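User: Hey, my collaborator sent me this sequence without any context and asked if I could get a structure. I don't really work with proteins. Can you help?
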Amino acid sequence: MVNRIRATTGLALLAFVGIAQAQTAGNCPALPADAGLTWETKTAGNTQFCRALRADGSEAFGLYIAAQTAFKPVRSMRSEEVRIDGHETYWYRSEIAGQPDLQARETAIALPDGRVAYLWIQAKSKDDLASAMQQTSALRFGTGAQLSSN
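Assistant: No problem. I've predicted the 3D structure and written it out in structure-token form, which is a compact way to encode the shape of the chain:
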């Protein structure tokens, strides 16, 4: 019984160390210092998942960085024009099944190393949406990031 507890505890610590290393490895963009957010990160193959969490554990926004994304912007769904990492782009409206009141947005950014960052926001109110957009506008992916042509 004690050995089983030690093994389980050891596995949990290894999982925690893996998450901590991913957060400190610079795989997610720099968060705004005054945002009060922290990254929750996971890696699957060559894909890095990053969720910006508020102090209460709720998601402010999320993103993943991968070789490619399935996101295909549709011009008629363009919504807000914004600057992310100093470059102009658009957020695109999206819908979440069964949640018609949710304010959902998505966009993609081409990174200097050839990968793509796909970002999403799912906000319960227009104020939460505006706050998340302001926070994502302050993200820094690295020197010379170029946005995809949206």
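In plain terms: Helices lie at 2-24, 126-137. You can pass these tokens on to your collaborator as they are.
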